Amino acid sequence: MNRYQTVRPEQKYTAKMFDRQFPTDDACLEQVKEWRFPGGVALCVNCKVRRKHYRVTGRMAYACYACGNHLFPLAGTIFHKSTTSLRTWFYVIRLMASTRVGISAKQIQRETGVTYKTAWRMMKQVRTLMEDRIYLKGPVEMDEAEFGGSDSNKPEHLRGKAKATVFGIVERKGKVVARIVPDATKESILPIVGEVLPPKTTIYSDESATLALVKWMGKSHKHLTVNHSEAYVNGNAHTNTIDGFWSLVKRGIKGVYYQVGAEYLQSYINEYSFRYNRRKVMRPMFSLLAERTPRQVCPSAREQRLLGS
């Protein structure tokens, strides 16, 4: 099997499979309910008992069989108070999960028939599900990259102000952590290294003076460098993996989004990191993302009041 030409059966999720699994809004609602309240069993805020809830006809709600109190599986999720079809939401999640370099809001608009404003907001909400807090293990590569418009056609006093610095750490053949930092100084970079890497990690980088300080963090990191002015590889030392990730992100942004504002850049970086970190997982990317839809759940004001009384 040529892995570059064949999608493994465990990872395959086609449009026909999506249509078969989620033909209607009711099917989507039932799935969200199962993810959030398996079997429909949830705490009834009136009875103060965990009970089975049953679907209420004509409403996006389930009712307690004893007292009739309604339970809303979409409350507090990215679908909360949205007038857009739930199946359209799921379709957008599938499109964002199945692409490799991204999909534009204009394409979502054309595919679903919603307005551009709605498409942009839906994508923004889906990206909130793509944020990860992960820890890495060695060996790793680290490097920083700059994102922003070209300075060639700007007045001198405006040059360099539109660029944002992103610091990345990637496991070889593994996961990546990429975060926006104010600048490429030790005050911005070293706390991230200390947060995501265990002690005694082997680190590869270029000959950056800032990155050289990882040797003095008191965590016994082994630091090997490569001089890019002379070669791209120095024994086992190279940054080809992190450079490949930067290339993927930059080509995607330039080819699909054209430009991204600094205030939204982290969410776009999260999007690319989410797909990159799960490229080898033997499950459909859509399932991995859709199962996070209850992740933003928080109790409603009424639930908090009743449970606190």
Describe the protein's topology:
Layout: H1 15-21, H2 25-36, E1 41-44, E2 49-55, E3 62-64, E4 70-71, H3 86-98, H4 105-112, H5 116-128, E5 140-147, E6 164-171, E7 176-181, H6 186-196, E8 202-206, E9 222-226, H7 240-257, H8 262-277, H9 285-290, H10 301-308
Parallel strand pairs: 5-8, 8-9
Antiparallel strand pairs: 1-2, 2-3, 3-4, 5-6, 6-7
Helix pairs in contact: 4-5, 7-8
Task: Tell me about this structure.
The chain is an alpha+beta fold and 309 residues long. It contains ten helices and nine strands. It has helices at residues 15-21, 25-36, 86-98, 105-112, 116-128, 186-196, 240-257, 262-277, 285-290, 301-308; strands spanning 41-44, 49-55, 62-64, 70-71, 140-147, 164-171, 176-181, 202-206, 222-226. The strands form two sheets. The chain has a five-stranded mixed β-sheet, with helices on both faces. Strand 3 (62-64) and strand 4 form a beta hairpin. The longest helix is centred in the last third of the chain and has 18 residues, at 240-257. The chain is elongated and about 70 Å long. The mean pLDDT is 87.
